[in-house]
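Work through this protein:
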Amino acid sequence: MPPRTTCLKIQNLTFSYPEQRRHALEGVTLAVQPGEFLVLCGPSGCGKSTLLRQMKTVLAPHGQCTGKVRFEGAPLDGMDPRRQSQAIGFVQQSPENQLVIDKVWHELAFGLESLGYDTPTIRRRVAEMASFFGIQTWFYNNVAELSGGQKQLLNLASIMAMQPRLLILDEPTSQLDPIAASDFLAAIGKINRELGTTVVLTEHRLAEAFPLASRVAVMDKGRLLYTGTPDKVGEALRGAVSTHGPVGVLPQNPQARELVIIAVLCAIGVAGRAAFFMLPQFKPVMALTIIAGVAFGGETGFLVGAMTMLVSNVLYAQGPWTPWQMFCMGIIGFLAGVLFRKDWLRRSRESLCAFGVFAAIVIYGGIMNPASALMWPDELNTGVILTYYLCGFPMDCIHAAASALFLWFGAEPMLEKLDRIKVKYGLVEPG
């Protein structure tokens, strides 16, 4: 069997805009294989959009360009414009710049009409795309009546009706709300999986784009820095520094949506503590804190643990204990995230339960019981501290058993749910 022709091959591409001394692209070499899903990322102004526009000659910017761009083995600049329009689809940031017809059904058909397809073929392809993208319910609507997400989906469907072999998307969700953006990216993944279309995507919602990618390419200052699987590129970028500071392709700081989830987890913890108030030390807070650390990282685990204890202690008027409990639970959440990131803590029931028992007896009990000695005017010595620890040990065992129980039954379904939430809403783990 003869080897497959590379879908897109860029060789030593250098480009500069008119009257600009600095190269927008410098020596870029990249190959995209058929059926691949490539996510192109990097700091703002690094040359991503410029590179994408070099992949379709009608959109290529004016300037001085050297190097070669080949599509399916042939020079792109020598490719027939009609064939290029059909074979290479390009989705821009704003659907308003690409939608040209007033009716949805006519927009789906417009590209095919322009290419001169016969009426039966147009009708068949339009029907297929309407079904594939779920457009049937607004098939006869005016384009002006559509939401931003619907317009961008219509734009995508009209391009896919021409059955391109390469689909290029330049920040297609930049003007969409989080829900619409998530749905749109899911549609891109479906195109790649079910239709086998090669995809090249630039996207700022990397937490949602990375799970879709088979390969990631990272740019900075017009150069290609890294290529590889999402996991390997992510590892290579951690701690990488450019003139922009840390290479800003993997979001590091908590977003507003992540803070909402943190608040919800804290509320669940407070409610859980209230629900088991009559059972001393039998509480789900530690289990929830560990789950938060594993799902979102050490910083989030610390916040969930500390804030849950702060709010619940205010409600239960346990003022003197509050700083100690905030510290203990926060440290447990932080350690859960750090140990999981280092692969010393696994997501299995056994591993999480073992950590829960350790955290309850050694960390929580090891801090809270001696701290009790500090709150009373007794003579403080080793014997007193040991006495306080031993007196609290039975309660620590109950705490450990409760944490293990909640982790055994609750960790797996909660982590699966939180994983889906992270992907859907673009939540990121701290670096």
In short: Residues 241-254 have pLDDT under 50 and may be disordered. The chain has two domains: 8-246, 256-425.
